Amino acid sequence: MAWNYRQGLSIAIITIAAVACAASTARQTQQSGAASQGIIGTWTGQSICVGNHPACKNEEVVYRFVAVPGKVDTFILYADKILNGERVPMGKLDFNYDATKGTLTGEFTKRQTHGIWRFQISGDALEGDLMLLPNKDIGRTVKAHRVDESKVPKAPPLVDYDD
After folding, report:
1. Is residue 44 a part of any domain in this protein?
2. How far apart are CA 116 and CA 100, in angstroms?
3. Which residues span the domain enclosing 51?
4. Is 151 among the domain residues?
5. Which value, in Å, is the radius of gyration of the alpha carbons in the chain?
6. Using an 8 Å Cβ cutoff, are 93 and 108 in contact?
7. In this structure, what CATH number is given to the domain that contains residue 70?
8. In a domain, 89, yes or no
9. 89: cis peptide before it, omega within 30°?
10. Can you tell me the distance from the alpha carbon of 135 to that of 50, in angstroms, rounded to the nearest whole number?
11. How many domains, in total, are found in the chain?
12. Which is nearest to 95 in space by CA: 114, 72, 112, 111?
């Protein structure tokens, strides 16, 4: 089979496109990896009630974010409140990271409450809120900071978070 200029040019264009696509994927993976390192870990701070929700109580919280194996930009949050110097599990929730917005979001329904937790991480600071649906009222605000696990009460076993 004779080689011609058009075939060579087509192969070159395809090769360049493949290399560019691979480089873009590698950059996205590196960015996701960097984001993961900024999210994964232990955070502690205050979760404060907002609005008229009589059952709501302000809480000192400890959040642990862990990566979900095999899923990019998906994390599990293990949430605790501190009562009498001990961590008490409040639950776990899947969160998605949006690299373009730099936000973590996790939607849930528990009993009669449907809401979305939204967090923004900047360095070692985490801020966010709980938006209650369907009205989009803010039910809580959270301000926390990254902390070494040894600086907070001992974590409960992960099985304690199962519903």
Report:
1. yes
2. 19
3. 40-161
4. yes
5. 22
6. yes
7. 2.40.128.120
8. yes
9. no
10. 14
11. 1
12. 72
Q: List the chain pLDDT tens, one digit each, 163 residues.
A: 555 656 655 554 554 544 444 444 444 444 445 556 689 999 999 999 999 888 899 999 999 999 999 998 999 999 999 999 999 999 999 999 998 888 999 999 998 899 999 999 999 999 999 999 999 999 999 999 999 999 999 999 999 998 6
Q: Are 129 and 121 in contact (CB under 8 A)?
A: no
- Going through the chain in order, the beta strands assigned E by DSSP cover 41-49, 59-67, 74-83, 86-98, 103-110, 113-122, 125-133, 137-147
Q: Hey, what's the torsion of the CAs at 101, 97, 133, 109, to 10 degrees?
A: 180
The answer to whether residue 25 sits within a structural domain is no
Per-residue exposure over 96-115, b if at least 16 CB sit within 10 Å of its own CB, e if not: ebeeeeeebbbeeeeeeeeb
